[in-house]
Specification:
Elements: H1 2-20, H2 26-33, H3 39-45, H4 50-55, H5 63-79, H6 82-89, H7 94-102, H8 121-132, H9 136-143, H10 150-157, H11 160-171, E1 177-180, E2 196-204, E3 207-222, E4 229-237, E5 248-257, E6 263-264, E7 278-289, H12 303-340, E8 342-343, E9 346-347, H13 352-380, H14 386-411, H15 413-416, H16 425-436, H17 441-456, H18 461-468, H19 473-504, H20 518-542, H21 550-575, H22 583-606, H23 611-621, H24 632-643, H25 647-653, H26 664-677, H27 679-688, H28 692-697, H29 703-720, H30 727-733, H31 750-754
Parallel strand pairs: 1-4, 2-4
Antiparallel strand pairs: 2-3, 3-7, 4-5, 6-7, 8-9
Helix pairs in contact: 1-19, 2-12, 5-8, 8-9, 8-12, 12-13, 12-14, 12-24, 12-26, 13-14, 13-21, 13-22, 13-24, 13-25, 14-16, 14-17, 14-21, 17-21, 18-19, 19-20, 20-21, 20-22, 20-23, 21-22, 22-24, 26-29
Length: 755
């Protein structure tokens, strides 16, 4: 029977698949095999095993990590004046650089055996997140050496000699690293780089050795202006066959000390006026010995795979941490400001338009930090989470943008006027940085999340493609016969599973006993089945053309991302003891995710080029009506969690730097505390329709309460005030500005005058 199937069914399908399914280039193959799949594969299966999610250990910091967070990390944030960094000095103060080196902030991921801190992914993320709530410039300075850089590559691939020499020097800051990947010709398409290294003999420390002659021109390189060692990606060639192999060896990563002749660093870019060190670097006829290749000669030509592996970790920690920090700050400050700021004799947090923003902020802060925790848990299991990290990078930065837009809307003019007390604008300026770097989100959303995810996370697709790549025709058919019919069986089960769950709304889908959250698990199982079936129909109907249908693959990437983020929120609710007070944000997250999932799948079906497949796909996945998003009552309930002080508010916003004498957040927090504490007293005044002074004269409030009200009103006025500058102060910021003679004395900054 098997032989008949192979002859009459498998053979023609195999012949068709050879031309229909995507052909993998060597670069694509390396990217696909870098990293591994995890929980996203369960979601892709159409029938997730929830016990696997619950079995993931919730990440926690060790005592050493907690001590560092409570000590040096807090100290660092207290040393930083973000306004001065971005508008006056254009750099971190020298004392901060010294502190970063002394406390080994640049060596968080380096093992203790090499002089580093040996921190977990979670601790690394927590520290970067916290610093980001104070200063993006400082956070980027810390995150880059600990994510994409020579340290990570050396740790994973370096020779013992390279590790012994470089890692201790990187850990204590004697060497400051940067990594040169992006060039003018090659951004997202790193394979297009023209930066080149040629194998030849040259002089090194007075001796003739076999090495590499390098020429490069890189840009957007963080820490390039101040780095002492450059990790460089380039195309390696051996035209004279000195290594005895191919002439075109491929992308290679090597260490280049920046003091070498021909290396040029020092010029700077100004990334969105966020003044971390970033700039171009060039090299002309720079010679290095072969042992400067990271991993040694055997890793020549393996740079792309190395980079994909390193990015899988860094992409899941650095920018997601910054994105989650921005969302948390937006939620924390906007909730407080909405309570402090009044219009029409009512706190603005009681107006529906503001409540809509607060509700979304609360849910995003809760869900994205849940996804960050889950991702760090996976990384700390030793997994290289390429697809999950791409989900986190893209959606943490996208939602960072949404959160800051919401926060800016509520703060209105307060957030528009720049100055030392504006705590939102520095984060707002940083939004394009997060969205662009470490893989532009437009590319990440379609080509990595779904493109790579569909092949790696699907139970059988990669097996099919690997079978088709076999050079021996017989072996190829045999392997394809096995994988293809397993795929057919999976699709058949998924079809009926999707249809049944769609008709019942997932009411009978498997789900853990999770109290109020159980229906959410069931519905998520329903959409998992619909997603899996849709993916298989796309493979069948589009084949290799799916690579070019980026709008369709982007929507499919969004569905996988929504399922991952929602499942992380479910796990967070479980891990935190099923907090009843937090149910509104969990339900809001679920309602919005299900609405977005259905909308994305509907748009995929409407735009499916193969119309013969569209109608049956809709029949089996979307037979019902529209799945609505969060209703107004739920939105208001979520907004109240940020409006009122509570344990729930603290859980939602998490640890953030709560301000200092030169930071507007401190002033806001003090005003918020005073307003909420004196709320019962102010209600007495409103009910009596009395001013504070009149109420005191009438004996309605005490002298202490009157004094507290006066202090509260002063704090509120300071919060509402915005910064302004005298002409002389402006001339310090803008040297070409000439103060008018008539206003030379001016008025001091509003904030300073109020204080």
């Amino acid at each position: 029977m098997a032989s008949l199937r192979a002859r009459y069914l498998t053979t023609p399908v195999h012949r068709w698949a050879k031309t229909a399914l995507p052909v993998l280039s060597e670069t694509e193959s390396e990217a696909l095999t870098a990293g591994e799949v995890w929980w996203e594969a369960e979601l892709f299966s159409g029938n997730p095993d929830w016990s696997k999610l619950h079995a993931v250990k919730s990440p926690k910091m060790s005592p050493d990590e907690q001590a560092f967070f409570d000590g040096p990390c807090q100290q660092l944030c207290g040393m930083i004046d973000d306004w001065k960094i971005n508008h006056e000095s254009a750099d971190l103060p020298g004392s901060v650089w010294d502190f970063l080196r002394k406390e080994k902030f640049f060596g968080m991921i380096i093992p203790k055996s090499y002089g580093g801190l040996g921190f977990s992914a979670f601790a690394h993320s927590e520290i970067v997140r916290y610093i980001s709530t104070r200063s993006v410039a400082a956070a980027v300075t810390v995150m880059v050496p600990n994510s994409l850089g020579p340290g990570e590559l050396l740790h994973q691939f370096g020779t013992e000699g390279q590790k012994d020499y470089w890692l201790p020097r990187l850990a204590d800051g004697r060497e400051l690293p940067a990594f040169g990947l992006t060039s003018a010709e090659a951004g997202s398409d790193a394979s297009a780089m023209i930066d080149e290294g040629v194998i030849e003999k040259g002089k090194w420390q007075g001796e003739e050795v076999l090495g590499i002659r390098l020429n490069w021109a890189k840009r957007y390189i963080t820490l390039a202006p101040v780095c002492t060692v450059l990790g460089l990606a380039f195309k390696l060639r051996d035209p004279d066959g000195l290594l005895g192999g191919a002439q075109d060896i491929g992308i290679t990563c090597a260490l280049v000390p920046t003091h070498l002749g021909g290396v040029e660093t020092g010029r700077r870019h100004l990334p969105s006026s966020t003044m971390f060190m970033n700039g171009p670097t060039t090299g002309e006829d720079v010679f290095i010995p072969l042992d400067h290749i990271i991993g040694g000669q055997e890793y020549a030509g393996k740079g792309w795979k190395m980079l994909m592996s390193a990015l899988a970790a860094g992409r899941g920690i650095s920018l997601p941490s910054m994105g989650c920090a921005a969302i948390a700050v937006s939620a924390h400050t906007t909730g407080a400001y909405a309570r402090v700021r009044e219009q029409f004799n009512l706190p603005i947090g009681k107006f529906g338009g503001v409540q809509a923003r607060l509700g979304r902020l609360a849910a995003d802060a809760y869900a994205m930090d849940a996804a960050r925790h889950l991702t760090c848990a996976g990384l700390d299991e030793g997994r290289a989470l390429s697809v999950v990290s791409a989900i986190m990078k893209a959606h943490a930065t996208y939602r960072m943008r949404e959160a800051l837009n919401d926060a800016m809307d509520v703060h209105s003019g307060k957030a528009v006027i720049d100055g030392p007390s504006n705590y939102l604008l520095p984060l707002y300026r940083a939004v394009p940085i997060g969205i662009t770097v470490e893989g532009a989100n437009i590319v990440t959303r379609s080509l990595i999340i779904f493109g790579q995810g569909s092949i790696r996370a699907h139970p059988h697709m990669l097996d099919n493609m690997m079978a088709l790549r076999e050079n021996d025709a017989k072996t190829s058919r045999e392997k394809f016969d096995k994988s293809f019919w397993a795929h057919v069986g999976h699709t058949t089960k998924t079809l009926f599973r999707s249809w049944g769950r769609a008709l019942t709304g997932g009411r009978f889908a498997p789900a853990p006993d999770a109290a109020a959250a159980t229906p959410i698990y069931r519905e998520l199982s329903r959409w998992s089945a619909a997603y899996a079936l849709t993916a298989d129909v796309l493979f069948l109907s589009l084949g290799g053309a799916l690579k070019r249908e980026e709008m369709i693959s982007a929507r499919m990437g969004d569905v996988l991302s929504e399922m991952y983020i929602l499942s992380a929120a479910l796990k967070r609710w479980e891990d935190e003891g099923r907090q009843e007070a937090d149910l509104p944000v969990l339900r809001y997250t679920a309602d919005r995710s299900f609405n977005r999932i259905q909308t994305a799948l509907d748009e995929v079906i409407r735009n499916l080029p193969a119309r013969w497949a569209a109608w049956p796909l809709r029949f089996f996945t979307l037979p019902g009506g529209l799945r609505h998003g969060p209703d107004d009552r739920l939105t208001v309930a979520c907004s109240e969690l940020l409006y009122h002080p509570s344990d729930s508010r603290d859980r939602i916003t998490g640890h953030i730097f709560e301000g200092c004498h030169h930071d507007g957040v401190d002033l806001l927090n003090r005003a918020y505390e005073a307003v909420t504490r004196l709320a019962p007293v102010m209600k007495r005044l409103r009910d009596a329709r009395q001013s504070p002074k009149a109420a005191h004269s009438a004996g309605l409030i005490s002298v202490v309460e009157l004094a507290d009200i006066n202090d509260m009103q002063k704090l509120t006025a300071q919060v509402i005030a915005v910064d302004d500058f005298t002409p002389n102060e402006l001339s310090e910021l803008f040297p070409e500005f000439v103060p008018p003679a008539s206003t030379e004395s001016g008025i001091s900054r509003t904030k300073e005058a109020a204080e």
